[in-house]
Specification:
With about 270 residues, this protein is α/β, with parallel strands linked by helices. It has eleven helices and seven strands. The protein has one domain (about 10-205). The protein has helices spanning about 20-25, 35-45, 70-75, 80, 90-100, 100-115, 155-160, 190-205, 205-225, 230-240, 250-270; strands at about 10, 30-35, 55-60, 120-125, 130-140, 145, 185.
Length: about 270
């Protein structure tokens, strides 16, 4: 495996690339510093814990703008509603992914490879306040959580300056502004993208690549009013069923999978009726 002379910072939800590309993370863990707030939180919780075994990690999710809504409501939502995230300011694509919980699904895939975990060691918990960014539970039952205001400046600064923590003038968290923290189970029956992401990870091979490629097409279509919110999951699932599965893909397999998944997703979008 190639050795790198410099530290490499992981930006965004790269886990969907697949096993081959992220083998370098597994084989060279000390040179990678994640920026995504949830993975940065896990990384920070693991500093000084190298000798201790992880029992489970909890990725927190805000729940997005449609937390608590049912399928009947979601069947009629428009992009303008989905683009109004309650806590984070992000680009259009990732904001839609957050609303559908696909962003959390991609983060689950990424966490598996970044931290060398089994699928059953990863769980998602809804935390609407977005103050606790992730939690690590160790085999003795103790838990460590990383907290902070929902602002990407902090994990970016941490990744670029690790192991140092630089003084800054970023907004500080005030406990009195958040007297009540709440947690709830992620509704994977209503927000099926998260369940599909877990399915793709358990299946392995090129399945996460199919999921990711199809999702990019359906999000673009939703933003152009060509497909409904719930139809995004339907198209992704159909692509996962119809695109050829490859258990041990190589780079060219990923490229072909990505290409064919996008083509099929586009065709399914064209056939759909909003």
């Amino acid at each position: 495996m190639q050795q790198f002379p410099k530290n490499i910072t992981i930006l965004g939800s790269t886990g969907s690339i697949g096993t081959q590309a992220l083998e370098v993370v597994r084989d060279n863990p000390s040179i990678f510093k994640p920026v995504d707030s949830e993975h940065s939180a896990i990384f920070q919780c693991l500093v000084g814990e190298e000798q201790n075994e992880i029992e489970k990690i909890y990725l927190t999710a805000s729940g997005g703008p449609f937390l608590g809504k049912d399928k009947n409501f979601l069947s009629a939502v428009k992009k303008e509603q989905a683009l109004k995230h309650p806590n984070w300011v992000m680009g259009a694509k990732i904001t839609i992914d957050s609303a559908s919980l696909m962003n959390k699904g991609l983060e689950v895939i990424e966490a598996k490879w970044l931290f060398n975990l089994e699928v059953d060691q990863i769980d998602v918990i809804v935390h609407p306040q977005s103050i606790i960014h992730s939690i690590v539970q160790f085999t003795d039952g103790s838990m460590k959580a990383q907290m902070g205001v929902p602002d990407m400046k902090l994990p970016i600064q941490y990744a670029l300056n690790y192991p140092d923590r630089l003084k800054n003038n970023f907004k500080r968290f005030n406990f009195l502004d958040y007297p009540n923290f709440s947690f709830q189970k992620a509704d994977m029956d209503t927000f099926r993208n998260l369940d599909l992401a877990f399915q793709s990870l358990r299946k392995g091979g090129n399945m996460p690549c199919i999921l990711n490629a199809a999702n990019e097409i359906v999000v673009e279509a939703f933003l152009k009013d060509k497909i409904g919110f719930l139809q995004m999951s339907e198209v992704i699932e159909q692509c996962m069923e119809e695109i050829s599965f490859i258990e041990k893909p190589q780079l060219m397999d990923y490229l072909e999978t990505d290409k064919h998944s996008r083509i099929l997703a586009g065709e399914l979008v064209t056939k759909s009726k909003v």
